[in-house]
Every structure is written in structure tokens, then in C-alpha cells.
């Protein structure tokens, strides 16, 4: 059982997420692993091996979880009544209502490890934090300020589809002092997926102040509907990435004032990347409506 300082908000919908893996030497694999949130009345200390059938978990997985190598995500949402301060994770059902697989020669109980537990308001969106500048060799901390370790978030370098880390707060130490590095965070709250981006600029130890390579570039309107205008970026490559880091529109800026047709893009958040002849990139967040 884990608790918090204040109760949840009555009437607010929350997404509960946690991960389990079956202990290798457990004697059983079973279904109906769930999470029950309450005011602390449930006895999970003295009666942890007894049936708790009087409690109905708000979040429940009905599959038999057998995997001993990979973490299985269990996730679900519920509406709080305003008294919930504690969360208890386990199987609340009796034998007659539990499906199981027995493994002979091991312990007589089924054991699971639990990690990355989070209870998050369902209207929360992904947050990567503000753009930042660091010195070569330093670490930049991205995402939420605190309590983000167990959040159902995955982080990517813009343009890559392989996650580099998970959780709502991560530390990164890019080494490219020429091109700023843009990171993408994806959060999955019970099927609602949102994205956010953050750019980290790295200065060499001898540098004092970053140089504004694109001081006069203007991209507008933002938010945009059908057309995007780019001023003072002549000679630059122009790419729009979706929040998975995939390029969805590319062009070359050949005039001081150029318009780009974005009517074919679906509504959402994108990253505009301008690349000049020196290899310097400028990233601009775009909202397409």
C-alpha cells in the first residue's frame, strides 16, 4: 500500500498505471491483478495473504500474466470520490474467481514484482519542459520538476523511433555543440496519447553566449490552418516533423518570403526545422488547426 499527502479530487477522472513481472520462482501465474484506491481502511499488512473480496479494484487486468522477463503494463481509469489517498495492488479475488497456471517445484504462492506506479489526472498532457542551454559535459533535466519517475512517458530524439528513456523526468547530456538536440516525450494516459518537445543547446567550455544564427526568421501564423509563411530564411532547408519524429513535409526556402501549403497535415503539434548552409538547425513548435 502506498499513500499520498492529500486525497484525490472528487469527480475527477484519473488514469492509473503500473507494471508487473512474475517472479521466476513463484508457484503460480494468475489473472485479476488490480489496483484499489481508498482512504487507507484496507488491511494490507496483517491480512496480505487473505482474500479481500469485499473490495472491488477500480483498475483490473483479467489476463493471466506469465511473463518473467518483460514488464506487463496494467492501466485503467476511474472517477474519484474524493477520499482516495492510498493505493493497494494485488489480487482481491478468491480461488473460485481466479484463473491460474501452476508451476510445480516452486513456492506455493504466486509472486509479482511491481514498478512505476502512477495516478494521474486524465486531462494531463505530456510536458517536456522549457528549452535549455548547458555547457558541454553537463546534464540537462527534462520534463516535470519532481515525482515523475513512474509516469507512463517515453522519450525520443527527434527523428528517431527508438526510445532513449522513460518516465516523466529524465537527464540528458548531448555532446553536439553545433546543432541543438530536440527531444520528444510521449505520454499514454489510458489510450490518450500526447506529445511535447524540448530543445537542448550545448555550449563548448570556451563559449560564453550562444550565437543567434537565425535572428530575423519569422514563421507565421502559429497556430496555422492552411498556409504557413516563412520570412528571412532564404537558402534554408525546411522540414516539418510530426511528434513521432517523422518528416511529413519538406521543401527548400528559395525566397525572402515564402508560403508553404500545410492543408494536407492533420491537426496537431509539429516541429518545424530550418537548416542553413552552415549546418545549423532552428526548431520551431507548430500547432496545426
Explain what the structure shows:
The protein is mostly beta strands. The chain has no helices and 23 strands. The protein has strands at 2-3, 13-22, 28-30, 33-38, 59-61, 72-79, 86-91, 100-102, 112-121, 132-135, 140-143, 153-157, 165-166, 169-172, 181-189, 192-203, 218-220, 227-231, 237-241, 247-252, 257-261, 268-275, 281-288. It has a 5-stranded mixed β-sheet, with no helix packed on it. A 4-stranded antiparallel β-sheet has the order 1-7-4-5, with no helix packed on it. A 4-stranded antiparallel β-sheet has the order 20-19-22-23, with no helix packed on it. It is elongated, with a radius of gyration of 24 Å. The protein starts with a strand and ends with a strand. 26% of the residues are buried.
Backbone shape: elongated
Beta fraction of the residues? over 45%
The biggest sheet amounts to: 5 strands, mixed
Poorly predicted sequence stretches spanning 5 or more consecutive residues: 207-212
CATH C-level class of the largest domain is Mainly Beta
**Share of helical residues:** under 10%
CATH domain topology of the largest domain: Jelly Rolls
CATH architectural arrangement of the largest domain:
Sandwich
Distance between the termini: 44 Å
- Rg (C-alpha, Å): 24 Å
> How many DSSP H or I helices?
0
Order of helices and strands: EEEEEEEEEEEEEEEEEEEEEEE
Task: Quickly count the domains.
Answer: 3
Q: Oligomerization state of this entry? A: single chain
The order of strands across the largest sheet is 10-16-15-12-13
Amino acid at each position: 500500500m502506498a499513500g499520498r499527502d492529500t486525497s484525490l479530487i472528487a469527480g475527477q477522472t484519473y488514469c492509473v498505471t503500473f507494471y508487473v513481472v512474475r517472479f521466476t520462482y513463484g508457484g503460480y501465474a494468475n489473472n485479476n491483478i488490480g489496483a484499489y484506491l481508498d482512504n487507507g481502511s484496507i488491511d494490507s499488512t496483517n491480512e496480505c495473504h487473505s482474500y479481500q473480496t469485499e473490495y472491488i479494484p477500480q483498475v483490473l487486468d483479467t489476463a493471466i500474466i506469465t511473463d518473467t522477463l518483460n514488464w506487463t503494463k496494467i492501466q485503467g481509469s476511474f472517477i474519484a470520490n474524493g477520499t482516495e489517498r492510498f493505493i493497494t495492488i494485488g489480487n482481491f479475488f478468491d480461488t473460485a474467481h481466479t484463473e491460474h497456471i501452476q508451476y510445480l517445484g516452486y513456492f506455493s504462492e504466486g509472486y509479482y514484482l511491481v514498478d512505476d506506479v502512477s495516478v494521474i489526472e486524465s486531462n494531463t498532457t505530456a510536458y517536456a519542459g522549457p528549452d535549455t542551454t548547458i555547457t558541454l559535459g553537463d546534464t540537462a533535466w527534462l520534463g516535470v520538476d519532481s515525482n515523475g519517475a513512474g509516469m507512463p512517458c517515453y522519450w525520443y530524439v527527434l527523428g528517431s523511433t527508438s526510445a532513449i528513456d522513460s518516465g516523466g523526468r529524465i537527464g540528458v547530456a548531448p555532446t553536439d555543440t553545433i546543432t541543438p538536440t530536440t527531444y520528444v516525450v510521449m505520454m499514454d494516459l489510458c489510450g490518450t496519447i500526447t506529445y511535447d518537445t524540448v530543445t537542448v543547446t550545448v555550449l563548448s567550455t570556451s563559449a560564453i553566449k550562444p550565437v543567434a544564427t537565425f535572428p530575423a526568421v519569422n514563421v507565421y501564423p502559429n497556430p496555422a490552418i492552411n498556409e504557413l509563411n516563412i520570412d528571412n530564411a532564404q537558402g534554408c532547408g525546411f522540414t516539418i516533423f510530426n511528434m513521432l519524429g517523422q518528416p511529413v513535409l519538406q521543401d527548400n526556402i528559395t525566397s525572402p518570403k515564402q508560403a508553404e501549403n500545410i492543408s494536407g497535415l492533420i491537426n496537431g503539434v509539429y516541429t518545424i526545422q530550418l537548416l542553413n548552409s552552415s549546418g545549423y538547425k532552428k526548431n520551431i513548435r507548430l500547432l496545426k488547426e
